[in-house]
Amino acid sequence: MLKNSPSIGTKRESSLHRSLKFQYSGTDGETEALSGSYICDGRTAGGELIEVQTGSFGPLRDKVKSLCKTEKVRIIHPIITKKFIELYNNGGEFVHRRKSPRKGSNWDLFNALLYAPEIPLIKNLYIELAIIDLIEKRIDDGKGSWRRKGVSISDRFLAAWHESVILKSPRDYYQFIPFKKKERFTVKCLGEKAGISTVLARKTLYVLEKIGIAERVERKGRAYIYMLK
Question: Residue 125 in contact with residue 68, Cβ under 8 Å?
């Protein structure tokens, strides 16, 4: 029995996921590509497998480890720089459109890697960050999250594709740390210098420790001191 199937893979697929799947598979490639007992989002004309992952990489961990024993795999992870929210009433009529105040950044990758920090170490695999703008369609149907006051998220659409950032090996992750080798820093220092939250800085250093880029060298009070390897 297949571990994935076309019906499972596409039934709940968002328009964003579908757009990126077709874009990165290419006109001469294929989508819903079979490799052993797995179905992947796509395969390029050159034979590279494509996996589009909009959320955590945790669910991909075992799959890509298995695939990369015999195949080359590229994980496409969208980074949303701008999000536009379109609200519709329960009858499908457009109500209004607004721009979300939240802006994504490349650092969001470490939220996705938190539960699969070893993925950058896998041979034959690399990660591509797709820098995009997004349209999120919402419906005021009373069935959504209480935080959105019952408004449901109906779909997500690719509004614009800007560029990509390719991470082929652990060494490529040095670009995220604004410190020189042998320079000591804390989680708080990283957050302040990079302009990210302390929570995200802590997640980042957790991942970078796991892939051998950063290490804890000592502890002062309640704070750990880090250095780049």
Answer: yes
Q: Give the CA distances from residue 120 to residues 57, 75, 100, in Å, rounded to whole numbers and listed in that order.
A: 11, 10, 31
Q: Spell out a b/e string for 161-192, using b for 16 or more CB atoms within 10 Å of the CB, else e.
A: eeeeeebeeeeebeebbebeeeeebbbebbbe
The number of residues making up the chain comes to 229
Cα(23)–Cα(31) distance, integer angstroms = 10
DSSP H or E segment with residue 11: helix 6-11
User: Rounded to an integer, what distance in angstroms lies between the CA atom of residue 226 and that of residue 224?
Assistant: 6
Contacts of 141 (CB under 8 A, 6+ apart): 90, 150, 151, 152
Q: What confidence score (pLDDT) does residue 5 get?
A: 40
Give the integer Cα–Cα distance in Å for 18 and 14. 6
Domain boundaries in the chain? 6-168, 176-229
pTM of the entire structure?
0.91
* Model confidence band, residue 4 (pLDDT cutoffs 50, 70, 90): very low
Return the amino acid letter for 221.
Answer: G
DSSP-derived letter for residue 151 is: P
> What's the CATH number for 176-229?
1.10.10.10
